[in-house]
């Protein structure tokens, strides 16, 4: 290989590398800073498959005032033991103010007992968090908590 061909190969490699790095580091303007309540409502509507959302049966426990959104303790579960025909198939948690509103999905089998889950979640800002329980009979039950976050997360 001649020196001119080698230099051209290096130049082409450097130009391509710099261009690829520039594209990779560009901010994504199409990604919104947070989900909108309309988007979350559409997600919940798709989850419910046309069934009306009813308040009750599912309980979402979150602190009303959160100091740090990086680690928020959440407990979601069903308030009472349900008969097998109405057992809980899944619990879903949505956060209206997060960049990605799907926070958590939990699926339960027929031998799960009374569904109850405790975990930690990240919240971007003060917002409403919604829990939806989908039952075997096709019904959907919901609970929501509006909370205040003093130190935001999910924005990195």
Characterize this entry briefly.
The protein has helices at 3-25, 37-48, and strands spanning 53-55, 58-61, 65-68, 72-78, 88-95, 102-107, 116-121, 127-135, 140-151.
Poorly predicted ranges = none
What CATH calls the topology is Immunoglobulin-like
Class inferred from helices and paired strands? alpha+beta
Specify the CATH homologous superfamily. Answer: SoxY domain
Summarize the biggest pleated sheet. Answer: 6 strands, mixed
Tally of strands = 9
Strand content: 35-45%
Radius of gyration over alpha carbons? 23 Å
The share of residues in helices is 10-25%
CATH class category label: Mainly Beta
Shape from CA axes?
elongated
How many domains make up the coordinates? 1
Mean pLDDT: 85
Number of helical stretches of at least 4 residues = 2
H/E element string?
HHEEEEEEEEE
Can you describe this structure?
The structure is a single chain. It contains two helices and nine strands; from the N terminus they run H-H-E-E-E-E-E-E-E-E-E. By secondary structure, it is α+β, with helices and mostly antiparallel strands. The protein has a single domain, classed as SoxY domain (Immunoglobulin-like, Sandwich). The strands form two sheets. Strands 1, 3, 5, 6, 8 and 9 form a six-stranded mixed beta sheet that branches. Strands 2-4-7 form a three-stranded antiparallel beta sheet, with no helix packed on it. A hairpin with a 4-residue loop joins strand 8 (127-135) and strand 9. The longest helix has 23 residues, at 3-25. The model has no long low-confidence stretch (mean pLDDT 85). Residues 51-154 form the Ig-like SoxY domain. It comes from Limobrevibacterium gyesilva.
């Amino acid at each position: 290989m001649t020196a001119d061909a080698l230099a051209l190969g290096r130049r082409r490699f450097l130009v391509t590398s710099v261009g690829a790095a520039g594209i990779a580091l560009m901010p994504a303007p199409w990604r919104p800073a947070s989900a909108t309540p309309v988007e979350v409502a559409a997600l919940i509507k798709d989850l419910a498959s046309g069934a009306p959302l009813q308040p009750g049966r599912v309980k979402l426990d979150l602190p009303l005032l959160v100091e740090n959104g990086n680690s928020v303790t959440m407990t979601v579960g069903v308030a009472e033991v349900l008969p097998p025909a109405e057992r809980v198939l899944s619990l879903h948690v949505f956060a209206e103010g997060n960049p990605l509103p799907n926070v958590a999905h939990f699926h339960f089998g027929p031998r799960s007992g009374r569904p109850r889950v405790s975990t930690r979640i990240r919240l971007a800002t003060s917002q409403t968090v919604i829990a939806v329980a989908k039952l075997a009979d096709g019904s959907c039950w919901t609970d929501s908590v509006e909370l205040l976050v003093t130190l935001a997360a999910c924005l990195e």
